[in-house]
Each structure stands twice: as structure tokens, then as C-alpha cells.
Specification:
Elements (H helix, E strand, L loop, with lengths): L2 H4 L4 H20 L2 E2 L2 E2 L5 H8 L20 H5 E3 L10 E3 L3 H9 L13 H25 L8
Antiparallel strand pairs: 1-2, 3-4
């Protein structure tokens, strides 16, 4: 066993991490928070229209900024097909432009500068480190790495 294969996290591990991150992002978003903290309040006119059920396909009348008008945008957030032993991609397949619009309105779920909210990012790093440490411990028992020191 070489060190590279010993440290391969595997596509299934990345898929599971990606699915967990998606769940955490959805919970945080529904609580009215994103990468920059609490979401900016809806405008008075928008909040009233939403509370009155004035939008087509509307599934929520909450005036709390939770990005849940129809539920489409958060349902579209998922693990994308780009999973391999080196990483996972999560994102929107259809509603990404709406996510960008919401960020411009002060309700950012993810941005280029902050792809994950700080707590979710810390969780991902902890999980990654735990996995690598476990693999290193296992590899230590079964791997010989020749060093060519001159």
C-alpha cells in the first residue's frame, strides 16, 4: 500500500460529507442566517405580499427572511455529480441565479469569498481532519515510505 492510496478519502466519504453540508446549509438558511450572519429583512411591500399569499406557487407565508417562498431554491441545493476521491461539489443545478440575487439583497447562502458559513466550514474541516488522521493511523501500521535523503 502506498501513501497516496492510504490517504484516499474515497468518493463515498466525500458524498456523505457533501450531503451533510447540504443539510446543514438548508437548516441554517431556514433559520434566517447565511454566510454573513442574519439575513437582511424583506422589504415591507414584499413581506406583506408574502404574508397575504400573493405569489404564485407560494408555500410559505412567513415574513421572516428564510428564503422559503416556494421552496424550489433550497430543494435545488444538492450534491452535484462531480464526486471523486479528491472532493465533492455541492450547489444549485437550476436556481443558482436566484441564490446570487438573494446574496445581492443581503441574504447570502454562499459566495465566492465565503462558500460556506463559518460554523459549517469549521465542521467540514473537523470532519476532514478526523478522516485523514484515521487514515494516517491505519497507514502507519501498514505502509512503508522510502525516503531518499542525500
Amino acid at each position: 500500500m502506498n501513501l497516496e492510496s492510504a490517504l484516499s478519502l474515497g468518493a463515498s466519504w466525500w458524498r456523505e460529507l457533501g450531503m451533510t453540508l447540504v443539510r446543514k446549509i438548508k437548516v441554517l438558511t431556514k433559520s434566517g442566517k447565511g454566510v454573513d450572519g442574519r439575513f437582511k429583512a424583506y422589504t415591507g411591500e414584499y413581506a406583506k405580499h408574502k404574508a397575504d399569499g400573493g405569489f404564485k406557487r407560494q408555500s410559505s407565508t412567513s415574513t421572516k427572511p428564510d428564503l422559503q417562498l416556494t421552496g424550489d431554491m433550497l430543494r435545488d441545493l444538492k450534491v452535484k455529480g462531480d464526486i471523486n476521491a479528491n472532493g465533492v461539489a455541492i450547489g444549485w443545478t437550476v436556481w443558482g441565479q436566484r441564490m446570487i440575487h438573494n446574496a445581492e439583497q443581503g441574504r447570502a447562502i454562499s459566495t465566492a469569498e465565503k462558500p460556506l458559513e463559518a460554523g459549517i466550514e469549521a465542521y467540514a474541516i473537523r470532519e476532514y481532519n478526523k478522516r485523514v488522521n484515521a487514515l494516517l493511523t491505519r497507514a502507519q501500521k501498514s505502509t512503508t515510505v522510502p525516503l531518499n535523503i542525500l
